[in-house]
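Objective 1b: paired records.
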Amino acid sequence: MTEQATSGVRLAELVASLSLATDLGLGQPQGHILRTTVIATRLAALAGLPEDEHAAAYYVALLAWVGCVADSHELARWFGDDTQIRAASYQVNRAGLPMMRFLLANLATGGSAVQRISTTGRFLTSGFREVMKSMNAHCETTGEIADRLGLAAVVRRSLPQALERWDGQGGPAGLAGEQIERVMRVVHVAQETEVFSRISGVAGVVSMLREREGREFDPRLAELCRTRAEEILGDIDTVDAWGTVIQGCAPLDRQMDEAGLRAALLTIADYADVKSPWFLGHSRAVAVLAAEAARGMGLGSPAVDLVERAGFVCRLGGIGVSAATWARPGPLSGIERERVRTVPYLTERILSHQPRLAEIGTIASMVYERIDGSGYPRGLSGSAIPHAARVLAAAQVYQALREERPHRGALGPKEAGALLLAEAGEGRLDAASVNAVLAAAGHQARRRPNLIAGLSPREVEVLSLLVRGMSNRQIAAQLFVSVRTVGSHIEHIYTKIGVSSRGPAAMYAMRHGLVDSSIAGAPEPQKISGG
């Protein structure tokens, strides 16, 4: 298979698949964003948007909330389950006092009265500003993803405005009225309309639009949607949203070649990993190691490509697990363990709608299966696990052992190798795959990443710790400098790479190879309030 070959995947199919992962991060049922896209394009047509804007509405609706994972770590610190707080936020006016009351009511909900009082005090002094700023991070991350996917200019212009409001009380730029791209104003209405139509029916949609028009929404678009609600929403529960969206994307769609598909899946790897600082760079590293091991085993080029691409997406379903769960330093609850075990299943479901992506998703979904049948989600064993999946499983275990986690430190190569061999010896991992992974790991030369964007060596050190969720004080202690010095470094870093918060900085660092997935110095284990 050559890099110039057609992949069999259309850009629209990949973006629509990605929207199914975003549904998980938003705490919404699968298909929420696909249905939002159908509503948005119907509203765009009724509003008489020109052809280019009507076409752009598909991609803007599909991607407007794709960056929601960027602030998951920060939200989990305050609210425990980031997916639940996002799901609940649709019911409130997300600005001013209503938003403040909503956030205060959801602080440390699982903690004691003393913990809640303490957390509330900290939130009122600095937390509210921190949370609002971290929410804006998703706009920057969305823009990064859109750039990497090579989407049309009108789409890229619109996406950073996902959190703006007609009344100017949104962010990050505080745009108001017609300063907001018309395509995004349509999507704003469609996003809330889908949720309310599902929860409260057409009557609930009409009431919500009447309340928010002229404040959150363009009043003309809100009125149009309200008065034509039956026409727009009549079949929304039964429509083939996937087929409608894929066909509607045609004006801005394109076939992806193999190089383009690989680049897109690499973007998805970073997207999945940015959910938690503990996993930054994990999917990339697994993919590289697994592909090298498969090559060393003499597997053909198609199999090597399949292993690598499955490695890129092997954590995609993890977007549906709260960041608080990934950051827990102690034992997981039974419910948390079960949710974690759904990750490979969710990965497969996200990619199941398109044949080539489904093939990749099937291998990715077997990353936690074991030769002796003790793995999950299906408990496959022996020959039921393909060679590609066996190699991927061994690579994932080795890479995970080499990375720090909330409950343990990173293991050295010798310790990780010994444990991997033990897994093979006890019949859980395929011995040939383990040997190939260890050979691939032993031949990897550690190279210092090239410094880019004018970052100094010290700024790269600060960036690598910052993106893992460490506080300024923790970074200062790690590097033996003052907190003020760290703050100055972070300000310069953000200016140089053109971001304003941790999530987008993490995406940038992974994109440019500035994150070492085995680096020590991840954030100290923290107790997550309410998690």
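Objective 1b, second protein:
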Amino acid sequence: MHISEAQRYELIDRVTHEGEPELLFAPLQSPPPGLPAGWGEILTAREPQTATLRLWNRVIHRLPRITQALRQRLQGIAHLRTEDVPESLIYFFKDGLEMFAYRGFPPAAELPTAPGIPEVRDFYSLHDGWISAYTRDDGPMPTSQWRLLSESLWPETQWKFPPGVTRLEDLAAVYVDEDQLAFAVDAARPGRLPLVCWQDGEIEAVADLWDAIDREVGTFLLELDPATQEQPPADAGRQQYLDRTLEGIAARWPEAARLGGGYYQRQWCLMLIDRAGLQSALPREELSASGHLREALDHYCRSLELGAGSTPLEILEFFGLAHVMGDAASARFLASAPPDLWADETVETVQTRLTFCLHKRNYEIAGGLVDEAAGLLEQASDNAIALRSMQRCLDDLFRRDQTAFRRSRASLEEVLIALPRPPWMALFPAFRVAALDAVASSLA
């Protein structure tokens, strides 16, 4: 793994206050003495991904995105020693010339018991904290750094307490993203649901804390540069974990509804999509998968009703799912959802608005959106091929040229199928194409 002197200095500079930092890059000829179990194998392995995954195997069902990033995006490993923290592992990732690193601390000497965090010991016996080496957040915090929300986290925020939550002094943050949110547990009331606390003061219930952390961290890491194209093997344990977790989520919905249920409903929906995505690889369970998809669609609509945010591609794909399921009412609801819940400044927003306008046969507004999309596509760089293929389909539909649409639709399918994606995203390209088919059917 190559790291520039400037990048090495930047990392060392972040820990100089800990005293005498020493950074050793793997593979090492021999591991330093006294390492936690499994660390020596990682630091001496020529290919760190396999050895790292063996260490992380105990949490692979709970953190599938993070563990897939360790399999496919991990660029290298280093051992960091300082006076204050004699042992820690640095996990390196990159995006072009920019380097990212996560720091894993030694396992907790005394494994914590934390109300609201299921199976906390599984992770904290691996690392007592796994956070950005640069910003010291964006991951499960070290137990010594679990802190109350009343202690200097966003002191200007005016908190909006849901029923049953009245004191910041009771909420301990176990995951912090300084720019946006914290995941917290109610330290004064064991057994309460974990909470997501937004910087703008909103507080809502979380359906599953590890799933929430996995989506925050793993989704980011999977967007970074690949180190290998190796695909993860089928994971029957993940299916069992989801079944067990979804049963518990359903049982606790009445409690979540009192705490503000938009985030909870959205997470419930996405975990059902995960479950259906895993089932889609098993032909005998295809009909069962559709049951998970129907339920996911319902929870997605309910999350929007409760004010949870979304993205333009996501609402477009759920619009397509509604048509696959023959649920015209949900399709109409999604096409009419307030844009402030899902829109941004991207070309995806324009294409989603154009899809909805064509479905409603609002050609006057659609014409302006066709021109707007053309201008934005000239500047697009990320996913440019897929975006242009999508726009060709929409242009053909705007001209009501069904013959041309069938050709552009086939081309879009080829592009989407070729895009690499994890198992839980396997169904989404079909939903996107289904959204276009719904428009074609309405125009016909």
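Residues 5-221 form one domain. The chain has a mean pLDDT of 89.
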